Each structure stands twice: as structure tokens, then as C-alpha cells.
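Hi V.,

You were right to ask for the full record rather than a summary. Here it is.
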Amino acid sequence: MTPGPGNYVIVHRKSTLLDLLAYIVARRGGKVGYLLSSGSDVYAKTTFLRVLGIAAVPFFGRTSAGQHAERYWRSQLHDGTTTFPVGEDPAADFADDQCYLEELRTGNRPDHTPLARSERPCQNKLTLVGQRRHLDCPLFSVCPSQATARASTDAQVWITTPAGLAAITHPSSSVDMRLYEAAQHHLDLLLVDEADTVQQQFDDRFLQHEILTQPGRGWSDRVRAQIDRQLEHSWRREILDPDFKAISRAARQHDQAMNELYTLLLESTGRVLRDVVQEGPFTGYSLLRRLARVLHGLTGRQDWQGRSELEDTADLFFEEHFEPLLSNPFQTPPEAWAELTQAMTATHDTATTAQESAVAWLTEHRPTLDGASAAGLPELARLLQAGIWTARITTSFFTMAQLLPAVAATPGSELEDFWSRQPPRDLQAFIPEQAAGNLMALQWQSNREGDSGSFGVLWLRGVGRWLLYHLHDLLAPEGIEGPNVILASATSWMPASPRYHLDTPPGLVLREPPEARAALAQSRMFFRPARYPDGRPVFVSGTGGDPARRQAALSAVSDSICNPRPGALLPLLEQVRQQVAEDRQQVLFTVQSTRDAQMVADFINHKTRYRALHVIRDDDQPSADSLARRRLGTFATSGADILVAAEGAIQRGHNILNARRVAALGAVFYLARIHPPADDATFPLSLLSREAMRRLNNPLNLTAPGTSPTDIARSLRYGERGRWHRMVGEPVLFSRLADLTERNAFVGNLLVPLHQTLGRGIRGNEKVLVYLCDAAFAPRTADLDDPAADTERTSVIVAAQKLLHGWLTDPGPGATTVQRRDHALAQTCWGLTSNLLDTLDWGLH
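Predicted structure:
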């Protein structure tokens, strides 16, 4: 294969191929870029290539370099066989964060701390007495923390992360030039490993998170303080500046809305509202959509199932009454809302309080339902006010952010860091805006004491994944030919998945050998839902977000696997272990979160005869029963029987091999159906980004007669905004996804991590046994009293079977070249997974 712009490769053992390409091109005098998904991978690849004699250099940003170095040394100290590392590791030269000037600083106070990287006088910060020009540190040429800057000039391979590529300024450039721009000038080849993960990281890079309220950090409070300082120092003359006057007005509106929302949450009567906002990101739309549903009797997640007509009625109620109030919350309100808006926002005394006016509005407008009472009106009135205040907070934040230069441009302003947390401003000029425009949501985080908390805002800034597909031609309009780019991934051909699928056809597919494929085809899947003593199936997914119910469900599932079920002589786990080789009897339990993993491991270690370790994040405090993610490869020699991990922590990059160098994990138990977390905004974000890329790659013909670009743009923006507002703030429930595209997206997003996780058990061409133990995988089949069969609307397994069958069915002699190509790709990428699903043992006999 000849590398070319945007070549995409589906590869078995892809890392080996990319390493070979990097080595060959560097040896022939070319300059290579290597894009990896994590900092630990960057250090490991640096070591690997430098041992081979290639001048590879890792690039990290100023703020993250110290964190990555700390993780590197923690890994070296914890993972080695000796107390201190022995032997040479070339990456260590780039993981030394010392500043030699620390020894020259005066003072021996007990609270003395080293200079932060941003405060070090490395370049253009030192002055000599009597001179005005700024100088570099005299120790720059020997400073260990500047190793990358010194080595970058002659580097043959640049290694970094997606965040580094987008944000880091090249240290040896004579002008301020970020890595992505320097790559266009200097690189011959850019290799992107785990391209689907990199795509997600680019998307996330353009989803900005800003803390609005927190002691010492809150953006809202700091903007307000800066406005007050400028007014004071200017003798109020600043108020004559139109931009300053506008931001002052928006700040007053923002402060009022924030304070009133806090009042609703912190009052003794605000417990129910606090529970709502703690579920995940929310908007004014999502809160008032929830209110519309509650007013129509849809009070919980389970209540929505099978009541689509009532849900449609609730949506019509929302569109009639609430949507006009939210589209522009600061314009003159509709007549029906005038009294409530006046009571909420007036700075003078009003005839009724905001709470009284909200109750009165609900009493007048709520629909008449059988058995309805006024008992819950006070809580609903608080939810109504919260939705209105939330819309005013996000709208005023956007106005303030746009006008921020009016106050942040002052020398020494504390708001300068606001720009550093945004996507690089020079990169934003390249990145297309989302069709829905600027989108926002609030997020609540309780404080340690639990008596208050902080608000953050999620701000969607653009189509981040666009950058992945234009790394080769970013500067083409300027006549600059970029590098050849190769995107490599083993699991990113999944057209249904907006999160993992790459929007470009692959140019090369490397398959596993036939004997390996035959061995993998022996893997089998079983549906074995846990049951309560009365025979009811246990649902882990579907516990309504109740932590106590979820813990009880996970305990019940763990008990049904590790202890004998009624009438059985041996636990299910022991029966499974007897079916695999003696050196492959360790197993994996997958759950949804690290908290779930610890909960399950604690149950196993205290209530069963087995020993379990649970996977923690690399930065978490370890315990006797935990295993840091970076140390997953050591599980095979840990002596434990069960590894419990959040599904997202086990998918990629870590092989757990026994002494024969084959997979030590002989079986995988899914204790919970794969499902996006409640506070995860990536599902709607990925849907918006995929649709944006589809339209960017297939632009409309606006020259056709009767075509109105304005009407098309308005319709597109309205539709995509509706998708965001409909999906953010409400849990993504498979059974409620009526839209076929969204349902297939859910299934596609499930299949990819399923495939990746099962890969931990097939290393060395071994079979793996897969057990689905959450009744939510197939609710009707799990319910012994339900005679109906599961369908693609009720079961993700049936939906996955149908989805894959559509791609794997021969398209026939009349198929186009593209259809035949896609059929061949489906056979290669998903044939084995489809076989696993088609041969699934439902346990009905």
C-alpha cells in the first residue's frame, strides 16, 4: 500500500504495521508523526522507537506534561519487580520535570511549593538590571524539563495525543505554530492509531466544560468581580462603552438566574429537584420536557414504556406552552407567562411570589387526568421555575462569553485562562460549526459535605471530528501540501455507530489467518439472567437510576454466578471454568462504572469463595483488592479468580496473557447491559457530529430552482437543536428510541465495545465463553410469565442480530461496487460477532 491523504486501514495487529511504517520512513530520511490516544502510550512508543535507533520525541502541553511525567514514574515504581527501576528507559529523559532554579529560590517556609510550569522563567521571562529586553533561562540548554524542546529540532518521529496535536505550540518553531500546523509543513507521514478513539477525542475537544460556580474558581463570580473592578477604577466611565454595558447587563441577569436556581435547590423543599439535576447534564428544555411528561402521568422511566400516545401528547403540550418561553428567555414573554415572569424577575415587590405564581399557572394549564390530584404541585412549580432559570443562565453565559474581551482584555485579568480552556482559537477558524449552532447544558456537582454544589456548563463549539479527516490538507488553500495520513483501527467499520464509525472508506484490510478465524468461531454466547428467589428476573439496567436498587441488583447477579443457584450442585462460575483449559480459568465481570466494579468485588470477596480484583483509574488510590488500569497485564499472575471492570476500562490496549502467552481470561460475564452513563453527553454529540459530517461530505445543491438556502438552514438548525434538547437531560433508554437511526446508533455503539472487550479473551486464537446475566439484554425472554418473544424494539440482542444480518446478506448480482465492498467489509469485521449472536444459547430448554 502506498500511503496517501486520509488512507484508512482496518488491521489485525495494526500496531505492528504502524511501527514498521514509522521505522521504514524514518530510516529513509522521512519525518513521521504518531498520534496515540493516551499519554502512557506516548511514553511507551517513545521507548520502543528509540531502542530501535529512531530519534522519537514525545510532545505534551505545558499544563499536562507534569501530570504525564508523574503517571510515568508512578507506573515505573509500582509495576517493576524491584523497589526502584533498573536498566535504561529512553522515555525517562523526557519525563524529568525538575527546574534547576528551584535550588536558587530563597525562603524555607513550610508551605513553600515548587513553581508551577506556567510560572517558570524558561523563555523570554528573565531580565537583567538596567536592561529592558527579556532573556531565556541560562540553564535552558541543560534543563531536564526542556528535553523535548531541545530534541525536537532533529526528531525523526513526533509522538503526541489528539489534545497535544491540537493545542501544543511546537517548541523549536521560530514562530508560534501549533503541532497540527507544523505537521503540514514538516511531516511526510502521519500515523493515527485507534482512529475511532481519536475521533471521539477530537469531538470531546470541542465540547468545552467551564465551572461557573465554585469558591475561588467560578467563572461567573470572576466575571462579575472583574466588571466591578473596572467600574471602580474607571470612575464608572466604562459604562459608556456599549460592549461593557451589554456584558454588565448580561452579568446581572446571569447572577439573578444563578442565585434563584441555587435557592430552589438548597431550600429544604428542594430535595426532589436536586435529585433531578444530579442525574446528568440538563437544559431548560430538558427540565420542562420532564415537567410536561409528569403533568401527563409519565412520572418515571418505566412509566414511558408502552405509552407512546401519551408521550406524544406531552410533547405537544411542551411545544405549545413551554417552547416559546425557552427560545429567547429574555424577550417580552407571551401573555400567558407575563405574571409568572414578572414575579420571578421583578426587582420590586409583586402581588404574588414566584412560587405562588408558578402553582397558579400549573393549576390553570395542567391537563385533566384520571385520579390526578394537586398534592405534587409545589414540587412541579419548583421544576417549572428551575427550567426557566436554567434557560436564562445558559443564554446569558453565551452573551457574556461573546462580550468577554470588554473586561478580560485588561492587563492582569483573572479571566485570561478562560481562553486557554477553549479549543485553540486559531484552530476554530478551520473547524465547521455544528448545524445546530452553539449548544449548551448545565451540570451539577455536589460538594463534599453534600449541602451545596457547583454548576458547570457544557458548550458545544464545533464538529471536532472534521479535523481527523483533514490532517492531510488543512493548509491546501495556501498551497501547502500536508503529510500522507494513515488512520488505523480494528473496529471502526460500523456504519450504524456515530461514535466509532469512520466517515471514509477503508483502503486496506488485513485479516487474521484462516486457522485463527476458525478457532475464534468456536466462541459461544449464553443468555443466563439472574433471578430473585420468587423467579423474577434481575434487571441491572433499568433500575431507574436508584443507587440502592442498582446495588441490590448487582449483588443478586453476582450471587447467582458465584454461589449455587437453586437446585444446582455447583455455581455457574464453576461450571463455566470446567469448560476451559486449566490455565484459562480466570474470568472477567463487566459492569458500567468503577463504583459498580468496587461494589461487585466487595460482594464477591465477602460473600463467596472466590477472590476478585476491581479495576481502578490510574490516578485512584490503590487498595489490596484493586488493580490500576495500567497494570491490567499483571492480573494473570495475581492469584485472583475474577477481574471486575467497568466496560470502558477493559476494551483496548491491554492483553492479559498466561504463561503460554494466550488469553488468561476464559470467560466474560456481562453483569449489566452496555449502556451510556446518565451523565454522558457523547451519544447526542456523536449523532450531531455524524450528521454534520454527512452534510459536509455531501453538500446540497443550492442552485436548483426553488431552493431557499435560508429555509434549508433554518430547518436544519431547528431539527438538530431539537435532537440535542430532546436527548440531553433525559436518560437514553433503548426501549424508548422510536427513531430507527437512533436505535441503530445505540446498537452500533454497543456492538463495538462488546467486540473489543471479547478481544481480551481470544488472544492466541483461543475461544471465549460469553454470559449475558442482565435481564435487560432480552426482557421478554427473561420473564418466565411473558409468552411474547423479544423483538428489535425490546432486546438489543435481537436488534443487533437484525442489524448485522442486513449487512451480511449477499446483495445479489445487481449490487453496485460500493454495496459489494460494504458486504465484504461486514463479513470481515462482523462475521464472527454475528455468528456469536446467531448461535446464542437462550437457555430455554
